Amino acid sequence: xxxxxxxxRSDWHKVAQELGFRFHTPGGEPYWREDAYYAFSINEIEDxxxxxxxxxEQMCFAVVExxxxxxxxxxxxxxxxxxxxxxxxxxxNRARNLYGRMDFSYSGDGxxxxxxxxxxxxxxxxxxxxxVFQWRWLEDLQKSGQLPESADQFNSIHETLIEAFEAxxxxxxxxxxxxxxxxxxxxxxxxxADCAEQAGLSPYLLPISAIGLTDLGGFxxxxxRSIYNLFKLYPWEWIWKDEFAVHLQRSRMKVIEPPWxxxxxxxxxxxxxxxxxxxxxxxxPAFFEDAVDTEALGLNFVRKxxxxxxxxxxxxxxxxxxxxxxxxxxxxxGAVVQALSPLPSFDAMxxxxxxxxxxxRPVGLGIREDVGRITTDGSRFVPHVILE
Length: 388
What we know:
The strands form 5 sheets. The chain has a 5-stranded antiparallel sheet with strand order 4-3-16-17-18. Strands 11-15-12-13-14 form a 5-stranded antiparallel sheet. The protein is an alpha+beta fold. The longest helix is centred in the first third of the chain and has 28 residues, at 42-69. It has helices at 12-18, 42-69, 71-76, 84-92, 127-144, 157-167, 183-198, 236-239, 261-264, 269-276, 294-297; strands at 2-5, 36-40, 99-105, 115-120, 173-178, 202-207, 212-213, 219-220, 229-233, 254-256, 286-288, 301-305, 315-318, 321-325, 335-339, 350-358, 361-370, 380-382, 384-386. Helix 2 packs across helix 4, helix 2 packs across helix 10 (269-276) and helix 6 (157-167) packs across helix 7. It has 11 helices and 19 strands.
């Protein structure tokens, strides 16, 4: 694994505009950057990232199974009691899931196993740039001779998304909703709508606020059309707080991601994985704050609120003292602590390896990096290649 400096494409802004990649420079600050890229060997990708993710996903299923049989787990995860049956039924019915992203600390072959930091199982973004724009970057650099024709990428995200949409067996329109004031979220559901259309579905985009409720308890869009299939880029724990949420189970609406994904998108997943297989090479010791094994955790650890997203309210402790923290609105719900696995440093940048899963299969890699050690929504996306 190396971080290699590279010349930017002179026309990449034009290419981004042509491909609909609008959020590459939010607020004038670069999000996409291609003045460098990360290079891997095929063994690093397959043995150190792809294969461990496939194994960890099966372990995650075991945690969901436990949660659906043991209500103490759902209580620990701060999931409201009146939604427990909804979650349990979605798992019992094997409701299909679409995608997710596991984030790892990894420095390459010889630096030790990749360590799972968290699982963005419900509403992960950075999907379009991982699936499409970094692939276009690879093709352009091959055409210009900056990369050899033999260069490859861990990236079958796009075609696998299309296959996954085909497998849902959806008839009629597929509604896709997100918050209307987020350019990144809108770009994500626009991309997913394109994948759904290529799968033969009929996508319809709308803001989450436009979804209404009929007198009979069914959900409708802004034009009063019934919603039977909904992809929502909106966290389950936010939905639980909505007054309409109590009608979800009685409605005929199929939701993607399914309710059981709320178990995996919760930071409480981390201690349950550690309980399942303590000492697993790809896991870090993790505990709920009120049940810490101080000997296993050590003095260097990270505090993570259960519902934290995009690095918000993450706090790093070194020698038992707070060393770095990120602001945000989370924390009242409780937190877990996880042993610190410091992100590697390449040219003073700290990369996080985001391995994408589609229909629970590891299919691609997206890398975000930052000068700080906490990856936030301001961290930058950097492409990667596989070179031999």
